[in-house]
Design a protein that fits this description.
Low-confidence stretches: 73-79, 98-116
Number of helices: 7
Pfam families: Glyco_transf_8
Strand order of the largest sheet: 3-2-1-4-7-6-8
Strand content: 5-15%
Mean pLDDT: 88
Distance between the termini: 45 Å
Number of strands: 10
GO molecular function: glycosyltransferase activity
Radius of gyration: 19 Å
Helix content: 10-25%
Protein name: Glycosyltransferase family 8 protein
InterPro entries: Glyco_trans_8 (IPR002495), GNT1/Glycosyltrans_8 (IPR050587), Nucleotide-diphossugar_trans (IPR029044)
Length: 329
């Protein structure tokens, strides 16, 4: 059997367990032929790990990835990003899934946990749902050492003061686009492009795992003075480390929910492959949202109800209980 492919996400706390379960459910419902592998840190409570096991979701334990202490600080508004550096542990999956992350070769008793290696990964955030099959991402044409992702939206509609000053609609890579060409011709990065054109959103990234790249990225994270300037941890790290080596993908593969309001000329509900619930308000945490986003949040709840029904039918009362404890009632 040759190298495998997989969707990968990170789970570090119980409060995101419903999101991870719904993400997995959504992948299955669109008929993806590739599994979701969940990276968990040692901090993830045992009850959540047991829930994933009961749901036959493959998991692998990784150590947290962080910059050198006292070299990076997050705005209080972005405290939710504290763990996101660890998403990039997936670059080690050239050695296989199911491997506990060790700084040295793992003890013999863990050797049997090595599974077949991966040649291609699609990294997803938990706060997403897959609405149409997007397995074609695994066949994205990428040169060695490259990644693929969709652009960041640099409009800053909420006027956050800690966001970059050049995050304005005129500099957003989505502003020039409209349907239907936006589905096949994402904005390209040119030497004279606005700086924001070179920034990606790390909610969905197509990666080629490599121990060598993982080592280089870890070294960069530990030593580069640029790290202190990063406002969005893993996102800025990827955009900087892969500068000139990332391929823009169409908006539909990482449909930032705000695009529906800010970039109506390109948006079509029926074209969404993967919807990303960016910003602090997540659909499972509250049922009270602004009118413009209410319909999109209901899409998440539709899938959650399907998940609940299935858990009930399977008799997995513990997973059902734990999920209900972590969603808005």
């Amino acid at each position: 059997m040759g190298p495998r492919k997989a969707y990968v996400t990170l789970l570090t706390k119980n409060s995101y367990l419903p999101a991870a379960l719904v993400l997995n459910e959504s992948l299955q419902r669109v008929g993806s032929k590739y599994p979701l592998v969940i990276m968990s840190t040692p901090s993830l409570p045992t009850e959540a790990k047991e829930a994933l096991t009961r749901q036959r979701i493959e998991t692998t334990t990784v150590n947290p990835l962080q910059p050198t202490p006292n070299t990076h600080a997050l705005s209080d508004l972005d405290a939710r990003f504290a763990d996101t550096w660890t998403k990039l542990r997936c670059l080690r999956f050239d050695r296989g899934f199911g491997l506990v992350e060790f700084e040295v070769e793992p003890p013999l008793e863990f050797q049997h946990r090595r599974l077949i290696s991966s040649q291609r990964i699609v990294l997803l955030d938990c706060d997403m749902i897959v609405m149409r099959n997007m397995d074609e991402l695994f066949d994205t044409d990428l040169p060695d050492g490259w990644i693929a992702a969709a652009h960041v939206c640099a409009c800053n509609p909420m006027k956050f003061a800690h966001y970059p000053a050049d995050w304005i609609p005129e500099n957003c890579a989505y502003t020039p686009l409209e349907h239907p060409t936006a589905l096949t011709q994402p904005t390209q990065i040119q030497p004279d492009s606005p700086r924001a054109y070179g920034l990606l959103n790390s909610g969905m990234v197509v990666l080629q795992p490599s121990a060598e790249v993982m080592a280089g990225l870890t070294e960069f994270l530990s030593t580069s003075p640029l790290v202190s300037t990063f406002r969005f941890p893993d996102q800025d790290l990827l955009a900087t480390f892969y500068e000139g080596r990332w391929k823009p993908l169409p908006w539909c593969y990482n449909a930032l929910k705000t695009l529906r309001k800010l970039h109506e000329p390109l948006w079509r509900d029926e074209e969404i492959r993967c919807l990303h619930y960016i910003l602090a308000v997540k659909p499972w945490q509250t049922k009270v949202v602004d009118e413009w986003e209410k319909g999109m949040h209901l899409w998440w709840w539709d899938r959650y109800r399907i998940l609940e029904d299935r858990l009930s039918q399977e008799g997995d009362e513990e997973t059902l209980r734990l999920s209900r404890e972590n969603v808005a009632q």
